[in-house]
Amino acid sequence: MSVSKPTESETSSSLASGFSAKRDMPVIVLRSKSDRRIRQGHCWIYSNEIDIERSGFKSMAIGQVGTLVSASGVMLGSAYFNPHTLLCGRLFSRQADQALDYEFISNRLNRALIWRSSCYVKPFYRLVYGDGDSLPGLVVDRYGDILVVQVTTAGMMAVLDTAIKALVDVVAPKGILLRNEAANEPEKLPAHSEVLYGDVPEYVDIEENNTVFSVPVFSGQKTGWFFDHRESRALLAKYAKGKRVLDVYSYLGAWGLEALNAGAASLCCIDSSEPALKLAAAAAARGGFENQFTSVKSSAVDGLKALVKQGESFDVVILDPPAFIKRRKDQRSGEKAYHHINQLAAKLLGDQGLLVSASCSLHLPRQGLIKIVQTAAYKAGRTASIVYQGGLGADHPVNAAMPEMDYLKAVFARLD
């Protein structure tokens, strides 16, 4: 007696009914040959990879959780979905029918906390880095007893109350602030700030690399602080003793003040925000460096041009701009902007001066930034020697299958 092999459609239907029976979750089926990237560890699903006819995908609610299945019926994991976006799914578990519930979230938070506590002596770090901690769409920065949360997807917003309860139970903070600085139209998330738990002061003190800063969590950029360059800033401090330092796009002065605290002779900060410069000046005074600190309220380009015109010279110039290339269509104009500021910086460096050129633009690869530094040095009649290349720290774990997460670059170049 012969038994016919089930068709791909029959296999998928059978598995789908088995999965969905557990928790009444929908099953989302991928198109043929669209599962390879997911099998290799990637966590993002695109709408053009989904077999619409076999999934009922279009009828899903924004943020609804479902089980992801390959075209041949192999279970790939659990994800939440937004049927109205190209990047429509975020895989958060490799188990079928896994709810994004309190038990799951608290387990992931505990794992995240254990890792950060093993890496940092003091409680100032990025506690949750989205996909890197299997909590896609969630960012949590820890400022001691205060947590600042960003939510970037409708799927995570749908379980925000559960996530906050888990954060309270796992971390025991005094206050939690939701800080969605800008609206996210694809995910239908408005700009919104709200204290979700306890009390949150307007400013919180943090310590990074032995330097104390006052962070404006309600009014500052993003969550108020940028932990991502922590390791690179620590290394710069080792080079800084006795040096004249220029910190461009300084914000609260993280790069420059840590250098000053490590023995730099002087620091000049350039930023377009007067409140940010006032906080940087206050931090300098707090450390006893008020006589070594100056600032210039200006756009970066205008400030750099003015210093060049004045014939100023520095031993270290730091460029840490916002992302000039937010979308691929910005590539050409963004690269031009990076070239411009690096060429101006090269003119301000003395012999064997150190240029620290950073970028948080995902679409500018590391080698692209190095090429920009090399070109800037060449046009200034200099030779660039790369002495260090920095990136994300241990509190920003990057899924090895997701290069999209590894956005940060810092190139240290000695100009001869």
SS elements, strand count: 19
Spatial order of the strands forming the largest sheet:
15-14-13-16-17-19-18
The percent range for strand residues is 25-35%
Reading off the top of the CATH hierarchy, the class of the largest domain is best stated as Alpha Beta
- Helix/sheet category: alpha/beta
Which regions contain 5 or more consecutive residues with pLDDT less than 50? 1-22
User: What is the CATH fold-level name of the largest domain?
Assistant: Rossmann fold
What general form does the structure show?
globular
Give a structural overview.
- The protein is α/β, with parallel strands linked by helices.
- It folds into three domains: 19-93, Archaeosine Trna-guanine Transglycosylase, Chain: A, domain 4 (Roll); 102-200, Transcription Regulator spoIIAA (2-Layer Sandwich), CATH 3.30.750; 226-415, Vaccinia Virus protein VP39 (Rossmann fold), CATH 3.40.50.150.
- Helix content is 31%, strand content 28%.
- The protein has twelve helices and 19 strands.
- It has helices spanning 8-23, 36-39, 52-55, 102-119, 154-157, 160-171, 230-239, 254-261, 274-286, 300-309, 331-348, 366-379; strands at residues 27-29, 44-46, 64-69, 75-81, 87-93, 124-129, 138-143, 146-151, 175-180, 192-198, 203-208, 211-216, 244-248, 266-271, 293-297, 314-319, 349-359, 384-390, 409-415.
- A seven-stranded mixed β-sheet has the order 15-14-13-16-17-19-18, sandwiched between helices. A five-stranded mixed β-sheet has the order 1-3-4-5-2.
- The chain is globular.
- Residues 1-22 have low confidence and may be disordered.
